Amino acid sequence: MSTEDAVAHGIHTTAGVVTSAAMVMVGVFAIFATLSALEFKQMGVGLAVAVLIDATIVRAVLLPATMKLLGDWNWYVPRRLRRAPRLVAEPARQS
Question: In whole angstroms, what is the distance from residue 27 CA to residue 86 CA?
């Protein structure tokens, strides 16, 4: 796949899972903000904000933009790692 196609495919196939997981985590961490101890409130708000930033800004904006800018350099493998076994994904079976 070309880099643009790979980025589009990656976003399309993982967007639902990433968004759902982020929503669950933000919900759980937001519950911490309702507790009486100040430390738990701070931790809950901090973790909820961190997950929101990661799910929206990093995964939806910065990662695809960086991959598009890097182009073929995304797939560069250092010389030391070229000896590692290559894993090839099989095409999906259509029934």
Answer: 39
Structural element, H or E, at residue 40: helix 38-53
* Choice among 13-17, 20-24, 61-65, 79-83 with the minimum mean pLDDT: 79-83
* Tens digits of residue pLDDT in 19-61: 899 999 999 999 998 888 999 999 999 999 999 999 889 888 8
- When divided into structural domains, the chain yields a total of 1
Give the domain extent around 49: 3-74
**Within 10 A of 30 (CB to CB), how many other CB atoms are there?**
13
